Amino acid sequence: MSELRDPKRTLSIAGPTAVGLVGILYVLTNVAYFAVIPLEQMATSDVVVAGVFFKAMFGDNAGARCLPAFVALSNIGNVLAMSYANARVNRECAKQGLLPWSRFWASLKPFGTPTAAVGGGLSQENWRF
After folding, report:
1. Is 42 inside any structural domain?
2. Which domain holds residue 105?
3. Are both 58 and 10 inside the same structural domain?
4. How far apart are CA 43 and CA 70, in angstroms?
5. Contacts of 73 (CB under 8 A, 6+ apart)
6. Are residues 119 and 57 located together in one domain of the fold?
7. What is the DSSP string of 53-70?
């Protein structure tokens, strides 16, 4: 939050907007599933509904290849977002003095980024304050 100019205003707009957008996309995804897949096939399928949807939309060959690629991209996005967010949270906790060796964890050396908070593999002895 310290990186935002007006965090209260930003969160009061961005929070409900993000939750609303994700909710709308979730409902539209389910509508697309029900529009494409017959209920009998959905009930008796031993595959994930998204797999049946992709096979119905793109055919057996392309559908079987597209879904795993999208799942992999989603997982990569999650790992990158969590790495970024966790580093920022760890640094802010260190700035508040909540972690041992707070100066080390809060440091932006040597690249101007919270490398230590990410767990850059550098030991405390290698850092000069």
Report:
1. no
2. 50-126
3. no
4. 24
5. none
6. yes
7. HHHHHHHHHHHHHHHHHH
